[in-house]
Fold Nitroreductase family protein.
Amino acid sequence: MTIVTDLTSRKADTAAPLIDPLADRWSPRAFDPAAVVETETLRTILEAARWAPSANNSQPWRFIVARRGTAAFTKLHDAMAGFNQAWADSAAVLIANLAETVDAEGRERPWARYDLGQAVAHLTVQAQHEGLHTHQMGGFDAKAIHDAFDLADSLEVVSITTIGALGDVDRLPEVLREREVAPRQRKTLDEFVTVGE
């Protein structure tokens, strides 16, 4: 097994050419605790999410954006599983990703989570383009976040995104450090693509 020591570039070994923000994207846990995401950069990242496609143009995504050092950041961090708390406190920004699963008339929005996923993907690629890194998380207490921010019942907390600049991998606990430097792996296209005739 090859251990990666230079984490500044972990470009994917793709089977077909991809644009740089996709090929360069990976999910670090070592973030620079002093780095700041400028307001205009953050606005650009969120603008990318704004222009994601959605069913019937419903745009059912909502985001709670919290900068490191704010009360909102602390609320999100406190709701994370301990495994994620161990590293996410160094991120510059935490974003809780919410899906509006019921519209204003009380009708179910069956594609809301899918649409939110597309918006988060757009946000992620734009952040990479801006020279930042993201890491998506599912280990958190959704009810704690719901209660901490007094969210409407129609909103479901689906995931949390960390955003920041790369930090020192040696600051991570050993088990996380091992995962950080492990080789990137993906299934081949043949393993998950079926071509219908």
